[in-house]
Design goal:
Elements (H helix, E strand, L loop, with lengths): L16 E3 L2 E6 L5 E3 H14 L3 E4 L5 E6 L4 H10 L7 H6 L2 E2 L9 H12 L12 E4 L13 E5 L5 E5 L6 E2 L5 H14 L2 H4 L2 H4 L24 E3 L2 E5 L4 E3 H11 L3 E5 L3 E5 L21 E3 L14 H7 L7 E4 L11 E8 L2 E8 L7 E4 L1 H4 L2 H4 L5
Parallel strand pairs: 6-7, 7-8, 16-17, 17-18
Antiparallel strand pairs: 1-2, 2-5, 3-14, 4-5, 4-13, 8-9, 9-10, 11-12, 12-15, 14-15, 18-19, 19-20
């Protein structure tokens, strides 16, 4: 079997990606927020032009799946009319921005986001998967999420910019924040970063200048989990897959004014009724499905040779510390290490303990039936 194709770009609205069930069209909602009416309209588009499902990605974007080639032009026109895409394809591709929970209109995070939209077109060309985190909300919670340039608050409370995986960063005034970002991007390119593709892969090979090693970020806050957050409500999405009809019904019944997309396969309903039933979603922090990762798998992805999510659902309650079931070695759902990683290969699974999909497996050629007997494969597993 040939190695899986690793693409250096993400499927945007201007540049959809072909998959086993049609085109994948990814949207980057501005400020990671959809007003309720816009969210309901997007759900209708998913049902009309796609397979009726939306996916919440690891970077808190939304994507439509199963879009037919002939359906893409009218879908693209409707997305533009709803204000969900950039007119400039290059700007849309660059707009990989993580937003925190709890930001408010006009606060530091909102102002930085506005400044970023003006700055992105002038930044040097960077690898397509690179992104920016604005971890400047009431609590720090984006440190473990995928981003390369991190605006944070230092332990002293001042704004700072930190290259991903570096322990320290550089203090910056808000007025100078975008110039600092341009400086860090220029250093990344000049020091050979594009060959590595991501900041975290580059830093072990390149010495970070001292100016970027001055201050420590504030400590991370508690992990986000489903439940009430003041007047709002955090809701979990198993495997990141949302039935469009269910989301539309939830937005309508709850009376929420908007939904914000979060990392960790969560979204936040802003305002509305907090006791609205949410079938198909996760509303409690103890669900094992929030600790398991699985890509769509076969037959939805042409590079996958195994079905993934039914197996992941069965195994989720039995794996402490994280489970990842990947249709191939790319590991799209979780490119990092997990307590147990199962990687599809030639219709069977390789088993990796405490590693990533690309790591050396301890067992190979396992069937789903064998994996149901985890105590035999992994002594000490429940």
């Amino acid at each position: 079997m040939s190695a899986p194709t690793v693409r250096g770009w993400c499927p945007g609205a201007h540049r959809p990606m072909r998959s086993g069930d049609g085109l994948v069209v990814r949207l980057r909602p501005f400020r990671a927020e959809l007003p309720a009416a816009q969210g309901q309209a997007l759900c209708a588009l998913a049902e009309t032009y796609g397979n009726g499902m939306l996916e919440l990605t690891s970077r808190a974007n939304l994507q439509l799946r199963g879009v037919r080639e002939t359906a893409f032009p009218p879908l693209f026109e409707r997305l533009g009319a709803l204000g969900l895409i950039d007119a400039d394809p290059d700007l849309e591709a660059r707009r990989n921005i993580l937003m925190p929970l709890g930001w408010r209109d006009g606060d530091l995070t909102d102002r930085l986001h506005a400044a970023l939209l003006k700055t992105l077109p002038a930044l040097p060309h960077l690898p397509g998967k690179m992104g920016i985190a604005l971890d400047t909300g009431p609590r720090a919670h984006l440190a473990a999420d995928s981003a390369d340039f991190r605006f944070e608050l230092a332990q002293t409370g001042e704004l700072m910019l930190r290259p991903d995986s570096a322990a320290r960063g550089r203090p910056v005034a808000e007025a100078d924040a975008m110039d600092a970002l341009a400086d860090l991007a220029a250093w990344f390119i000049a020091s050979g970063g594009p060959a590595a593709g991501r900041m975290a892969r580059h830093l072990p090979r390149a010495a970070v200048p001292g100016v970027w090693q001055q201050v420590l970020p504030r400590s991370a806050g508690p992990a986000l989990v489903p439940g009430a957050v003041e007047a709002d409500r955090l809701i979990g999405v198993p495997f990141g897959t949302i039935e469009a009809a269910a989301l539309s019904a939830l937005l309508r019944a709850s009376g929420a004014r908007a939904m914000r997309l979060m990392t960790g396969r969560l979204f936040c309903l802003l305002g509305g009724r907090g006791d609205t039933p949410v079938p198909g979603f996760v509303t409690t922090p103890d669900s094992p499905l929030l600790g398991v990762h699985a890509c769509p798998g076969a037959p939805f992805c042409p590079q996958a040779t195994v079905a993934t999510r039914a197996l992941a659902t069965r195994l989720a309650p039995r794996v402490d510390g994280g489970l990842h079931v990947s249709g191939c070695a790319k590991g799209c759902a979780l490119p990092r290490a997990a307590r147990l990683t199962l990687v599809g290969r030639n219709g069977a699974f390789d088993l990796v303990e405490n590693g990533a999909p690309s790591d050396l497996p301890s067992r190979t050629g396992l069937t789903p039936a064998q994996l149901d007997d985890l105590p035999t494969l992994l002594p000490g597993m429940p």
